Amino acid sequence: MKQRSLRDLTVSEIGLGCMPMSWAYAVADVDPEEVAATLRRAVELGVTLLDTADVYGPFTNEMLIREYVVDAGLRDQVTIATKGGLVPIDATNYGRNGRPDDIRAACDASLERLGVDMIDLYQLHRIDPDVPVEETWGAMADLVATGKVSYLGLSEASVEEILVADSIHPVTSVQSELSLWTDENVVNGVLNLCEERGIGFLAYCPLGRGYLTGTVTADVIGEGDFRSANPRFTAEALTANESIVAGIRAVASRHGATAAQVALAWVLEQGAHVVPIPGTKRRRWLEDNVAAADIVLTTADLADLAALPRSGAPRY
Ligand SMILES: NC(=O)c1ccc[n+]([C@@H]2O[C@H](COP(=O)([O-])OP(=O)(O)OC[C@H]3O[C@@H](n4cnc5c(N)ncnc54)[C@H](OP(=O)(O)O)[C@@H]3O)[C@@H](O)[C@H]2O)c1
Fold first, then answer.
1. Whether 189 contacts 159, CB under 8 Å
2. What residue's CA is closest to ligand 1, atom 36?
3. Does residue 283 surpass a pLDDT of 80?
């Protein structure tokens, strides 16, 4: 697989979002053997970037990486990206905690759960409005200085916050949502700023939490599924956005591809610094997604995709 640069860190041009392996979507469908096989297959296919977070599960997702990647002897073949700075309040709500001591403790706990000596990319999951970003980022820079972490990333940061952090310690990546139904990070200038500075942009939810693949209908979203409380997955929103999926399918049919592949090919087109991290818990979707790297969208395809509406419903 081709590689892309997140500043000094080189990763496969398509990564793997591990969140659905233990959290968020159709968790009742999780099959541990399939999860293990998916992680092994990702490595075989040359996917090197594995994205996880302490809060996914909560606190179980990193342990899957330990069991099926680190303990399986595959650690040296992957870049492990995890996150700290979000804490569970109850089953569905999360708070932000960027206090330096707590970030240091969160990093130690992630190292322990992952079973590694060093985290390749440690990302601040959210900026805590009650703690100056300088303080949180300064503590994270100390984690690099003490050898616990190699590179640092932000998630859902503004242009101003990225600039402040980057003046203290290099921002290797910014992880935020980017897909055919969400162009917020184009509009707010974050995608551009990252390109100018060579900062990698990790595009999360590149498949619109599954919706853009055309496989998600109201009946597949069960109770407890994160999407059941998300404004983009109400019955009205699902219906209102059908034209987006139809437009993606029309482009896909010209390439003999799936809608998921076109959605990912579009994300890859948004800049050489952009790395989509589609999430899945199964080999079938992983293989489909990795093959998206072979699709070359034409000017006409890109014009048709640009003309599609964005989601009218908010992200959260
Ligand atoms: N920084 C943040 O705040 C943040 C927020 C959200 C996500 N993330 C990260 O970004 C990653 C990606 O986002 P995401 O997982 O939320 O959403 P996503 O990648 O847009 O979509 C994932 C969903 O799509 C399904 N899927 C994947 N490939 C498919 C294919 N080829 N055809 C049909 N369905 C397919 C998956 O199904 P299965 O579950 O059945 O495999 C899963 O339910 C996450 O895993 C996580 O690592 C970060």
1. yes
2. 280
3. yes
- Is residue 175 in contact with ligand 1, taking CB distance under 6 Å? yes
Active-site residue set = 56
Ligand 1 neighbour 85 (Cβ under 6 A): no
Count helices and strands (H / E) in the chain.
Answer: 12, 12
232 closest CA partner among 145, 149, 312, 121: 312
Give the 3-state secondary structure of residue 121. Answer: strand
Give the DSSP letter of residue 70. Answer: I
* pLDDT for residue 315 is more than 90: no
In the structure, what pLDDT confidence band is assigned to residue 219 with cuts at 50, 70 and 90? confident
- Read off the amino acid at residue 81: A
Q: Of all helices (H) and strands (E), which one includes residue 268?
A: helix 259-268
Give per-residue pLDDT as tens, 138-179.
Answer: 999 999 999 999 999 999 999 999 999 999 999 999 999 999
174 lines ligand 1 (CB under 6 A): no
Taking the CA of residue 52 as reference, the ligand 1 atom at the shortest distance is: 47
Instruction: Name the amino acid, one letter, at 304.
Output: D
* Residue 271 Cβ contacting ligand 1 at under 6 Å: no
Q: Label residue 4 by pLDDT band (50, 70, 90).
A: very high
Which of 55, 79, 261, 280 is the best mutation target for the ligand 1 pocket, counting ligand atoms within 8 Å of the beta carbon and taking the most? 280
Per residue in 231-273, pLDDT tens? Answer: 999 999 999 999 999 999 999 999 999 999 999 999 999 999 9
Confirm if 277 and 78 have CB atoms less than 8 A apart: no
Residues in the chain: 316
Q: Domain segments of the chain: what residues?
A: 3-209+271-296
Contacts of residue 170, defined as CB under 8 A and 6 or more positions apart, other chains included, come to 7, 8, 151, 152
CATH superfamily of 3-209+271-296: NADP-dependent oxidoreductase domain (3.20.20.100)
